């Protein structure tokens, strides 16, 4: 492996937001068949940058720099009998989109959101990476096509469990109400509100990382088996769908108490699927937030050990700051991740390098 020692012919950039407050989650899956999901796209973005070279300029055709992991290594196509070893999701995206033979690329990927944060970070990475790689080809995928390509790679290429909402949220940005009419096909309805509601919501939300990366577990597999056996009309799934409807209506009305109630109802719906989906760490944060007058809390993603939780606070910002201090003092692993609502979803642009760097 060798890093390029010459200047690129062009540079491609892409960014995609992560997702919080996914009320209605679990209903965007193959076993739910149809669903209703509410979610909010936020900064920090996932960032992808591709430096493009002529193939004869560098020794490695594809060089991947996973900045968060401190890893830089050459990626080989699987048709050369190399396995996906370090980061299968990233390497599968590179294979799927197929870098042209006459080009070489150095791909850098970075996110300020911790890995395994349960905020759809892997989906945002996939969306941003596919969109950037698509710039190397004559065709141009639309954002929704990028989202479905990302979902296909996770589910069909890698055989992983994945709903559809994370990829769609990264592609669209903003606040969304998603109706999945038949898995995996869905209609996305962006929720547009005035600046005062947008800014107030942004100021009241908080994202707490629980200090451990989330990963699928035996609990998740058991929940999936139980829901599969219960069928798409399971009352437990329907209860989750209704929290998405309530969230949408609350946002349109500017009713933060109603939004908080929908978040709490969704978290209790997750607990009803299995008690361990609301971990001891998540419950400790919930208890602290409740003591400071928080209006709502949502265990992000499917729930379980690790990951993160979204909090919706009351109107008094000093009380919110005191709450965040109390949470971080309760456990040195707990971390407040600053977030801002993202009006835009996937963005891709490219340019030639500055003349001074050639």
- The tally of domains stands at 1
What's the number of extended β-strand segments? 13
Task: Outline the low-pLDDT stretches.
Answer: none
Helix-strand pattern, N to C?
Answer: EEEEHEHHHEEHEHHHHEEHEEE
The CATH C-level class name: Alpha Beta
Radius of gyration: 21 Å
CATH architecture: 2-Layer Sandwich
Strand content: 25-35%
Structural shape? globular
**In this structure, how is the largest beta sheet organized?**
9 strands, mixed
Termini distance?
Answer: 23 Å
Helix content: 25-40%
CATH topological fold name: Ribosomal Protein S5, domain 2
SSE-based structural type:
alpha+beta
- The average pLDDT is 93
Number of helices: 10
Question: Helix and strand layout, with pairings?
Answer:
Layout (H helix, E strand, L loop, with lengths): L9 E14 L11 E20 L7 E5 L4 E4 L13 H10 L5 E9 L9 H14 L8 H15 L7 H8 L2 E8 L2 E6 L4 H10 E5 L8 H13 L4 H19 L2 H18 L6 H12 L4 E4 L8 E5 L4 H14 L4 E3 L2 E2 L5 E5 L7
Parallel strand pairs: 3-5
Antiparallel strand pairs: 1-2, 1-13, 2-5, 2-6, 2-12, 3-4, 6-7, 8-10, 8-11, 9-10
Keywords:
358 residues, 4-stranded antiparallel beta sheet, 25% strand
Would you give an account of this structure?
With 358 residues, the protein is α+β, with helices and mostly antiparallel strands. The chain has one domain (10-357): Ribosomal Protein S5, domain 2 (2-Layer Sandwich), CATH 3.30.230. Helices cover 37% and strands 25% of the residues. It has helices at residues 88-97, 121-134, 143-157, 165-172, 195-204, 218-230, 235-253, 256-273, 280-291, 317-330; strands at 10-23, 35-54, 62-66, 71-74, 103-111, 175-182, 185-190, 205-209, 296-299, 308-312, 335-337, 340-341, 347-351. Strands 1, 2, 3, 4, 5, 6, 7, 12 and 13 form a nine-stranded mixed sheet that branches. Strand 6 (175-182) and strand 7 (185-190) form a beta hairpin. Helix 1 (88-97) packs parallel to helix 2 (121-134), helix 1 packs across helix 3 (143-157) and helix 2 (121-134) packs across helix 3 (143-157).
């Amino acid at each position: 492996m060798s890093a390029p020692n010459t200047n690129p012919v062009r540079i491609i950039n892409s960014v995609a937001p992560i997702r919080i407050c996914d009320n209605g989650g679990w209903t965007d899956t193959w076993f739910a068949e149809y669903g209703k999901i509410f979610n909010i796209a936020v900064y920090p973005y996932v960032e992808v940058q591709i430096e493009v070279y002529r193939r004869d300029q560098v020794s490695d055709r594809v060089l991947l720099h996973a900045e968060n992991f401190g890893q830089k290594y050459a990626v080989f196509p699987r048709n050369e009998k190399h396995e996906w070893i370090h980061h299968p999701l990233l390497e599968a995206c590179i294979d799927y989109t197929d870098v042209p033979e006459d080009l070489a690329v150095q791909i850098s990927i970075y996110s300020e959101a911790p890995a395994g944060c349960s905020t759809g970070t892997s989906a945002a990475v996939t969306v941003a990476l596919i969109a950037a790689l698509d710039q190397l080809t004559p065709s141009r995928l639309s954002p929704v096509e990028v989202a479905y390509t990302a979902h296909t790679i996770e589910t069909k290429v890698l055989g992983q469990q994945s709903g559809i909402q994370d990829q769609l949220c990264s592609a669209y940005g903003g606040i969304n109400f998603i109706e999945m009419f038949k898995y995996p096909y869905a209609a996305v309805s962006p929720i547009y509100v005035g600046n005062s509601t947008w800014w107030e919501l942004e100021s009241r939300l908080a994202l707490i990382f629980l200090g451990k990366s989330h990963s699928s577990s035996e609990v998740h597999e058991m929940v999936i088996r139980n829901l599969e056996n219960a069928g798409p009309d399971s009352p437990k799934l329907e209860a989750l769908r209704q929290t998405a409807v309530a969230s949408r209506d609350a946002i349109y009305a500017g009713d933060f108490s109603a939004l908080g109630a929908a978040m709490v109802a969704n978290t209790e719906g997750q607990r009803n699927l299995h008690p361990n989906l609301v971990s001891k760490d998540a419950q400790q944060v919930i208890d602290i937030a409740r003591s400071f007058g928080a209006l709502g809390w949502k265990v992000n993603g499917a729930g379980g050990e690790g990951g993160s939780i979204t909090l919706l606070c009351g109107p008094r910002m000093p009380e919110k700051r005191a709450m965040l201090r109390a949470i971080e003092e309760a456990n040195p692993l707990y971390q407040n991740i600053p977030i801002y609502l993202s009006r835009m979803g996937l963005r891709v642009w490219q340019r030639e390098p500055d003349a001074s760097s050639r």
